[in-house]
Each structure stands twice: as structure tokens, then as C-alpha cells.
Design brief:
The chain is α+β, with helices and mostly antiparallel strands and 752 residues long. It is elongated and about 120 Å long. Helix 1 runs antiparallel to helix 4, helix 6 runs antiparallel to helix 7 and helix 11 packs across helix 13. It is found in: Endoplasmic reticulum membrane. GO terms for molecular function: protein transmembrane transporter activity; RNA binding. This is J domain-containing protein.
Amino acid sequence: MGQKFQYDESGGTFFYFLLSFLALILIPATIYYWPRKKKRDLNAENRECKCPGCVSKREHLKKAEPWKGPRNFFIKLVIIAGWIILILLAYKVSQFDYEMANFDPHEILGIPLGAGQTEIKKAYRKLSVILHPDKKDTGNEKEFMKLTKAYQALTDEEARRNWEKYGNPDGPGAMSFGIALPSWIVEKENSFWVLGLYALVFMVAMPIVVGTWWYRQIKFTGDQVLLDTTQLYYYFFNKTPNMVLKRVIMILAASLEFDKKKNPEIVERETDNEEVPQLIKKLQNLSEKNKEIPLCYLWSIKARAIIHAHLSRIPLNPNTLEQDRKYIIGKCPYLINEQVNCVNQLIMLAYAGRIPKLPSIETVENCMKLCPMIVQGLWEFKSPLLQLPYINDDNLKYFMSKKRQIKTPQQYAQLKGEERRNILRNLTDEEYENVAKVLGRLPYIDFQTQVEVMDDDNPKDVTAGAIVTVTVTLVRRDMSTLFGDETVQEATLIAENGAEDAPKEGEAVESAAKRPAWLKQKKGGKKTKKSSKPANKVAATTKPKVEESPTPNSDRKREKPKPKEIVGDGEEDDTDESDENDSDVENNDKSSADDEVSKSNEDDDQEWEKFQKIHDRDKSLEGKSKTSRPVHCPLYPLNKQEYWWTYICDRKSKTLLTAPYHVTSLVEKEIVHLKFTAPIRPGVYSFTVCLRSDSYIGFDQQKDIKLDVKEAPAEITEHPQWEFEDSEEEDQAENNDRESEYATDEDLPDDD
């Protein structure tokens, strides 16, 4: 028996190839690309703001995707056509009847097993009359040949032996391997067309597609910002280390995304020659006569004027400049985030000594400050209350009275419902309902910090040169938790302080809500702090030593005091000295046992905390999500998510200790680990942990932390053979530089 390789003449095996190839593409394509309609959430629609700005924004977003419906229809049509082809191919393959694949002569002749020669001949004659090729109606040459072979297999001795041994009356044949390609592909007369198609696909089309994609990708950063724009930011921030907010706006407007030569999506009109100069006359401090390149280019001046008009809420022509405003403002948050990254990189380069000038912390904070201004369409000196719908400069006067001065949404949310409604009594019920919806969905962030030295035996002790980890815990709630209703206050107190601190029955709930963390305390607050200290001291003296550092399991494992021991037959020991000695021994035994229990519990708690920190650290290394909470921003043309920046800085020396971490997934709770190197010199240092919003004005927070840096223990023995004379001067210079970066509380005076 030989082997025979041949191309598929009938096309049967090629259909198998097409069927499997199409199924591999069609099944995942259907799962991932089939258009699905989003379920209509009535609750979400009810929570949406119905102010004119939000309504027009939603209509604009719907009109901005006119191709979405036809695209979905085309995707459905292609997928359905693919499945139809797949079903037809499957049916075609199922109809293939390969000759002698399951050869059974009894089944072909329609006779039972063990039939005699007479019965075999009778069945053959009967079927041959019907299937003979000469018969016009019932003749079938292929079936007649199978019938003849079946008859021979049962009547001819040699054919019968071949069938019983090889399954084929003709005897052993060559094993045939079909190549799943039609034979016309390798025919000589078609070679030119086949090679031409191969060259066109693999040598022309594919290199062009890959090269075009690569050429477009290398022009952008990971955040889809032009590399030329990033280089422009590096140049200007290095040139002006201490950059004011006005110049940050100028640099933002000079981004090459707004130049038609770099971005073909930019539209230039003839009407710009008239409308842009008229707009510039309405604006102040635009600095349109600046001679720096590219700040002096017309496209840069136009973008700058549109940004100023957006921040001043000046209406523009809806057919011309308003369209440009939507495009330019939609790009700004991504560009501002790139500015923050560039300033941070320059600061790191300055610490490394690669550039002479160190950008100030005011520069990076001005970049962060600009982002919520762009999103809300509001200058920083304006009232944060203007972020609420229907609030304008005319009705801001209602928030100011002799009794109270409402300056922030947080203060307004703390009022009772009647007082809030009374302030905006000029609005209709529907308009006030929208104000309450937006106010209740604003973020209320619980901002907590914890300082420690990770992977150390004593995480609370900070030594010189140690890696300090500041764990920032952000808990996001809605502003509705601050509403001045008594029921809301009681639920908030229970949620924040637990059931033990909740007001008991019969106790009055305070009318004013808990003061937010970001509001500065009054000077009189220090008195309450002093008055609370003696009470704490008295309480501490009355408690036993074990209770000074309680643990979660210490109360549960504390033993009850035992009764007095009885001596002899029910007679008590009457001597006072023996009672005192016995009680002292018993108390010492109890205190030692309690100390051991508390120490073991503390060790268990520390081990658990370390495990949790390692788990949180590993979780933070995973991919960052870009979904948090939607932002109310009717003047921003796109949908926006709440993002935050958190970082550590030294206000006295005006230095940045950690790179700003961009928090992009704060839905309910987020834990961020910020690390920096402790100062080389021992002493007490004051640093500031900052939290800044990129979406709302007036929601920034900061917490001061103090580090008592102690001298590092000399645990490593010096080995003279390991020292290098050449590196001593470099190490000394590096230590001097690091010492100059920080200043203790004694070195620098407090800021007024």
C-alpha cells in the first residue's frame, strides 16, 4: 500500500478548510462586535440634571455620532452574512459522500445478512434496472457502479476476500492525502495571477497598512498627545520654572493639536479674520502681542482667546467659534495632564542634576488648578457655587446675608432643607429640584493619611534615609450625606463613628453637620484641644496599664477576678499581710498574663496589617481603570469622569517629594501608597499631603504630617576592603545635596 498526495480536485477538503477558518473568525467577532442596546435605566434618567446646559450637551453628543446607527447596521449585516455562509458551507460538507467510506454491500443491495446467491442476484437485477445509466428518469451512473461493486463483493470470491480484508472489493489502494487547496492554484496557466495576488497582499498592502499605523502611533504619547507638544511643554516649563496661571494658559493654547499643519481636524474659516479680533476686544490680559514662537502664531492666539472666552462664559457664534470651542476645550484635560507629567519629569531631572533650574511647586499646582477651571468653565476667583445649575452672578447675593455667609457648595449642603429652599426661592420647584440633584451628587471625600516605614521591624519609627510610605485612603461619598436633615445626620454619624457613638434615644441631634475636613478651623479651636487634655490624663490614670493600648481581642480574653481562696476547712486567712501578699501575687500574675495576651494580639494585628498592605500594594500595581463617577459639567463638551491628584510636598522649601499620582477609579474607596526618602539629618520635619480635583473647583484638601526623623542605627560593620577612595567625595556631595532639599521646623520660619 503506497501513499499518494494530491490537490483537491473536487473541492471537498477546501470546504472543510473554509468552514473551520470562518468559524474561528465569526464566533469571537459575534461575541465582541455585535451591537447591543443599553438597557434603559429609569433611575439614572431621573437622576440626570434637566438644566438647559445639560440637555443641550446630551443632544450635541447624540448628533456628534451620526454614523453610529449605520455603523451598527453594517456590523450586523456583515455578521449575519457570515453566519449564512457558515451554515451553507456546513450543509455542503454534510452532503459529501466519499465513495467506499462506509462500504456495506448488504445495505446497498437491500438484503439481510446471510442471504443466498439467488436472493442476491434477484436484488441486483431489480436495482440495476432502475439505476442503469441508460434509464433517463432513474438512471445514476455513480450509484450503479456502487451496486456493481456490491454484487461482486458478494458473488466473486476474490472480491469478497478483498472486501473482508481491506474494506474494498478492488483490494488495497494507495492512501490518499488531500491538500485543502483547489488544483487550479498550482496550474501553470494561472501562476502569473496567483503570484501577482500574493505580491499585492503580502508585499504591498500589508507593509502599507503596518507602516501607516506605525507612523501615526510614533507621533503620539501613551495619552494620545503629540510628541512635538510634549517637547514644547518641556521647553517652556524649563525656561520658566516659576510659571503663573496666566502663562500656563498661554502654553496650553500653543499646543500643536490646535495647528492645522499638525492636526487635519482643525477647521480654519475666512470668518475667523473678523470674529477673532472682535472676541479679543472683549477679553482682558490676553497678551496677544507676545512675540514668542509659537505663542505669536494666529492659531495659538485664536485658541487662547477661545479658552479665555470659555472661562469667562462669553457666548460665541454657534456655527463657527462655538464649534471650535467644543473641539479645543474637549482636548484640554488630556493636555493638562501631560503638562503635569512634564513638570514632574523636570523636577526629577533637576534633583538628578541634569538641568540647572528646578520648577517650583506652584507651577505644577497651577497646571492642576487649570483643569477644573476648564471643565467647569469658570475662573478660579469666581464663586464655587456657580458650578451648580441656575446659579449665576445675579442670584449669588441670596447666599450672603447678615446671619450667614455661604461661599461653597459644602456650606450650602449643610443647611436644612427649608433653609436651602428659602435661599433659592426665586427658582421654580423644577429648577430647584435640579439644583438639589447636582448638589447631592457632588463628591464628599474622606481624606485620611498614615505614615510608616514598610518592611521594617518598627514601622512607626522613621530613621534618616529610610523609605517612608504614606498610605492615602480616599473614601468617596455623595454630598447628600451633608444635608442638614436630622435623619441624614443620624445615619451619617452611625456610618462614620459606629453604633457606640450614635446619638441615643431622647438625645438631641445637633443642627449643624460635621465640619468638613477641608474647611479651616477657627483659632478658638485650640482652646478645646487644651481643655480635653486634662480629662484624658485623668482617664488614663484610672485605667490599668493593660488598657492603655487596647487590642480587638484584649477585652474578650481578659479573665474575671477570682474569689478569695479559702484556707483549711472553710476558715479564711485573717492576717492582713497574707491577704496583701496573695493579692499582689495574683495581680502580678494577671498583669503578666494580660501583657502576654496583649503582646500576642498586637503581633497578630501587625502581621495582619502587613499582609493587608502587601495585598493593597499588589492590587495597586494592576491596570488602572478610567471609570469613576460622572461629572456635572454642562459647559464641557464631552462626558467627564471624576479624577484626582494626590502628592506630598514641602511647603517651606517649596519642593515636591512625590510624583502626583492620578487617581482615576475612585468610585467608593481608593488606597494610594506614596513613597519618598526621609531626610538625612535627624529632626522634626513638616510635610503636606495634598488632594486636588481635576473636575470641581473648591474641593481640594491637604493634611499636614510631621516626621520625627531619628538617626539610623549603625547595624552594618564597616569593612575597609569594601571602601573606594574615588567615590567618597561623590557620596559626600550627594549627601549634602539631599540635606539641602529638606528643612526642619527649626531651620525655616513659619509662613505668615
